[in-house]
Amino acid sequence: MPxxxxxxxxxxxxxxxxxxxxxxxxxxxxxxNTDTGETFVWTGTEWKTPTDPATATSIRWGRDVxxxxxxxxxxxAPVANTALVSVTVSTGRAGYIYGFFISCxxxxxxxxxxxxxxxxxxxxxxxAKGSLHYVDFIPLNEGMPADGGSSIxxxxxxxxxxxxxxxxxLLYGEV
Length: 175
Prior knowledge:
Structural class: mainly beta
Shape: elongated
């Protein structure tokens, strides 16, 4: 059974002289200044106005990040553990995996690999012939972001058959 996380949006009110709350909040909660009528939205780290572009990305992705697709080329009959797509996390940053796309002409297992705190981590994805597309606003590696300077890859576990085409993409963002 899939895990479902539900957050109820809260609305707070206060005056210009009152401090805005900073604990027990969910991304998207609102605070309205009753003196001016101005509305602020909680981004997960601070209160911002709804017209601030960072507010929109924080509400969508849970932090101020703009994930982008990293595309791997088609690979014919890859040997076992071939990196079908790879992205290197910028030094001093943390890498998050928001989605993936895998396509192959036969059944195989795949791994999404990354390093956190110097330790190798992976998620295994068993798959039948075809394509699999996954995107979520909660990163697959939430709480375990990839280390700066390390790589995030999608690899095939078993060797591909003769003439069989594989391809992968990562939806990746860093903060």
